[in-house]
Hints:
Elements: E1 4-5, H1 8-12, E2 21-24, H2 34-43, E3 48-51, H3 63-67, E4 71-76, H4 83-90, E5 95-98, H5 101-113, E6 117-120, E7 134-137, E8 140-146, E9 150-161, E10 166-167, H6 176-180, E11 183-194, E12 213-216
Parallel strand pairs: 1-12, 2-3, 2-9, 3-4, 4-5, 9-11, 11-12
Antiparallel strand pairs: 6-8, 7-8, 9-10
Amino acid sequence: MRKVYSGAVEALAGLLRDDMTILAGGFGLCGVPMALIEAIRESGVRNLTIVSNNAGIDGVGLGILLDTRQVKKMISSYVGENATFARQYLAGELEIEFNPQGTLAERIRAGGAGIPAFFTATGYGTQVAEGKETREFDGRHYVMERGIFGDLAVVHAWKGDTEGNLVYRKTARNFNPICAAAAKVTVAEVEELVEPGTIDPDHIVTPGIYVKRIVKLAHVEKHIEKRTVRERA
Length: 233
């Protein structure tokens, strides 16, 4: 099965359509599949539901899809740092489904594992639980949350082989592995592409069985969301 594509646009060809649900890895601006997001923007698809921890910042990451108004709904944990997001939401132009961060991670993981729903104590008695089934177990109250399984997942990895096995680097691992397992089709962008058998099997985080298409990045620009420095002693 041919998995390696020449570029992000080619890797997403034939997969994108209006009204689809897309899971995107990343946390802040770390481990975000920038090239694939840019290709989604170029495709012009609209009314997207995006599942991601956050929506990037203005003009960077998922923020570029907000700029072009291609997103109708965000399923996220944190949406600060993005003025465009705030404007569209307050104007009623963008729908938001907020999740506690751990709940969002578990919803995605559950979707990838084929688990349709689970119970968590997080959010019980708050707006998060409104309209959801609740139960009591061993004297404690829980909220039922649904697993998330999307049409497409886009992820960023440090290294991958031509069979789609992926390795993530440090905190760029974040939401990428669970997103990769929770969609009908997963497309990965990698900084380094190697031949099969080159990666130590014990180092593989996402097995190639989850990845249908892969593209090697010619250039990687790593943004810093907030730079904090201190005076030298």
